[in-house]
Amino acid sequence: MEELEPSELGTLEYWEKRYKQEIKNFTNHGDVGEIWFGEDIVDKVTVWIIKHIPKTARIIDVGCGNGHTLIELANEGYTNLVGVDYSERAVILAQSIAENRGLNIKYSQCDILQGLNDVYDIVHDKEKALKSDGLFIITSCNWTHNELQDQYKDHFDLDCLIPTPQFKFGGKVGSVVSICVFKHKNK
Ligand SMILES: C[S@@+](CC[C@H](N)C(=O)[O-])C[C@H]1O[C@@H](n2cnc3c(N)ncnc32)[C@H](O)[C@@H]1O
Q: Does domain 10-184 have CATH number 3.40.50.150?
């Protein structure tokens, strides 16, 4: 099988350059920048969290970018929110947006591959740092629900799927984005 070229989205250089521009756009025009999976998908995650998770839960968004998901949660009354990103400029952007809106969200620069020091009730997007009874919510535009379950099967059981818009092609039904909620495996 032909080997795929690594994506530039997997490099810190790409994100630093991108957030440099997004900081400029925010400073000059108040434009907060890209919402990667779209507003509709962020809504699905936040609506699910609002329905199932208390407002005081300790929630971390890993690879938070401009912090859009956390801002939505803060607007809904969540008080214990943390965002980390390995791009220093993403952190600067996210801090500026939160400050501009008078929201109390803690941001810091952190490469998830180096690990996190703390544990959380809800981890959005990457999974280490989860309390034993916590929930790990992942949104993916690369992998299907089944592939995500397979990827995490040694450590996590599926708690539920958050439904996303579907499309039909060639008689098959698919989703552009998959959102899974995982819990630690019962030992
Ligand atoms: C596709 S963007 C998503 C941003 C945001 N979560 C959203 O949904 O709009 C991916 C983000 O992950 C961050 N990221 C990638 N690898 C990371 C790592 N190893 N540690 C922390 N952040 C990382 C990037 O800097 C970027 O901000």
A: yes
Closest ligand 1 atom to Cα of 12: 25
* The predicted structure's pLDDT at residue 51: 96
The bridge status of strand 178-184 relative to strand 156-162 is antiparallel
Question: Which residue CA neighbors atom 10 of ligand 1 most closely?
Answer: 63
What does the domain layout of the chain look like in residue ranges?
10-184
Rounded to the nearest angstrom, the distance between the alpha carbon of 86 and the centre of ligand 1 is: 7
**pLDDT score at 4:** 60
d(CA 69, ligand 1 centre) in Å: 12
Confirm if 85 and 65 have CB atoms less than 8 A apart: yes
Neighbours of 36 (CB within 10 A): 16
Instruction: State both tokens at 82.
Output: 């943390």
**Pocket of ligand 1 from Cβ distances under 6 Å:** 15, 35-37, 63-65, 68, 85-87, 90, 111-113
Q: Do 20 and 33 form a contact (C-beta atoms < 8 A)?
A: no
Mean pLDDT, 10 residues at a time, the chain of 187 residues: 69 96 97 92 95 96 96 97 96 98 96 80 79 91 88 92 84 83 85
